[in-house]
Structure formats: C-alpha cells, structure tokens
Amino acid sequence: MSDLLSQARSAAEKAYAPYSKFQVGCAVETVAGKIYTGCNVENASYGLTVCAERNTLFQAVAAEGPGMKVARLSVICLGHEFPPCGACRQVIAEFSLPGGRTEVTFLQQGQPVTRTIAELLPEAFGL
C-alpha cells in the first residue's frame, strides 16, 4: 500500500463518525512537497458534516496559502471502498494541477486505483 494511502488509513482511525459509522481518512501531498492528513467529522445536523478530503485540503490551504496545489491525494474508508464524493471532487479540482492532472488514489476490490481528478470529474465547474 502506498505511503499516502497508509497515512490516509491512520487518519481514518481518528474520524468522528458516530452517525454513519463511515470512518474516512485522507492524505494530500502538495506541489511544495508537504503532506497533510485529515478525517471526516460528522455532526448531528448532517449538513454541517465535513468530509475527510475537504478537511485535509482546507488544512493545506491554511498552511500554504491560496496558491496551494495538490500533486497527489489518497482517500480510504475503513471497512468500505469508494472514491471521493462529488462535492469533494469539485474541491479537489479547485486545487488541482493544470489540466486536472492531480492523482487521486482510493481502493477498489482491495486494490489501490489511481485516477486523475479530470478522469473523476471530467466537467468540473470553473469560473
């Protein structure tokens, strides 16, 4: 398992998910070479829940500033397998490498799968 995926798994173990029981973790490597991790944090008012991917990306922006770009991102959910949700895909695209080249890794059938954010979100919204 890749180093980023292992770090995402460690982050997932810290998730606050008393309602869904879906413990999700994320690890991001920025173009600056820094690594950030985060987990999902749920709330009884579901709309206030923050996904692991967005939690992690927002930490990276807070640390590196508005020019932060993501080189690679890995996400994992303990006991389940799925790629980032649509909202997270849009946020990843916002901080992606030009042309949507940022690599996103997740598990399918127990194996790491890597796609670019452009492959996962081919028609990202942009201004």
TrEMBL record:
Swiss-Prot/TrEMBL keywords: Hydrolase, Metal-binding, Zinc
UniProt GO cellular component terms: cytosol
Domain of life: Bacteria
Cofactor: Zn(2+)
Entry EC number(s): 3.5.4.5
Catalytic activity: 2'-deoxycytidine + H2O + H(+) = 2'-deoxyuridine + NH4(+); cytidine + H2O + H(+) = uridine + NH4(+)
GO BP, sorted A to Z: nucleobase-containing small molecule metabolic process; pyrimidine-containing compound metabolic process
Pfam families linked to this entry: dCMP_cyt_deam_1
Domain CMP/dCMP-type deaminase residue range list: 1-127
Single Gene Ontology MF annotation: identical protein binding
Residues the record lists as binding Zn(2+): C51, C85, C88
Bilayer-spanning residue ranges: none
Active site, per annotation: E53 (proton donor)
Ligand binding (substrate): N40, V41, E42, N43, A44, S45, Y46
Keyword hit for Metal-binding: yes
Purpose: This enzyme scavenges exogenous and endogenous cytidine and 2'-deoxycytidine for UMP synthesis.
Family membership: Belongs to the cytidine and deoxycytidylate deaminase family.
Protein name: Cytidine deaminase
The species this protein was found in: Prosthecobacter fusiformis
Lineage: Bacteria, Pseudomonadati, Verrucomicrobiota, Verrucomicrobiia, Verrucomicrobiales
